[in-house]
Amino acid sequence: MMTEGIKRHVIQGVSVPVYCVAKTVADCFRFRNRIGVNLAVEALRDAWRNKKTTSDELWHYAKVGRVLNVMRPYFDNLA
Predict the structure, then answer these.
(1) DSSP at 11
(2) What pTM did the predictor assign?
(3) Considering the domain boundaries, does residue 1 fall inside one?
(4) Are residues 44 and 75 in contact, defined by beta-carbon separation less than 8 angstroms?
């Protein structure tokens, strides 16, 4: 779960691991009790409207993060 979705970016000659957008959205739903459901829904809405990720990527990382059933009603509301 923690190793999927990592992309490496080189910043000033240093390789830095950064999670992809879909993984970040799924993590927002995973930690919704700590950060709030509103923030998780806003992250999903922003990623979807600005076409930063695809529905397939969102479903994949939601499955990996075990939040598919939590994300489904919010995603269905957007689509």
Answers:
(1) E
(2) 0.87
(3) no
(4) yes
Strands 14-19 and 6-11: antiparallel
Print the domain residue range for 74: 20-78
Q: Is residue 45 part of a domain?
A: yes
> Phi and psi at residue 44, in whole multiples of 5°?
-65, -45
Collapsing DSSP to helix, strand or coil, 47 comes out as helix
Tally of structural domains, the chain: 1
DSSP state of 53: S
Q: How far apart are CA 61 and CA 67, in angstroms?
A: 8
Query: Does residue 60 fall inside a structural domain?
Result: yes
User: Of 39, 29, 17, nearest to 62 (Cα)?
Assistant: 29
In tens, the pLDDT along 29-63 reads 999 999 999 999 999 999 999 999 999 999 999 99
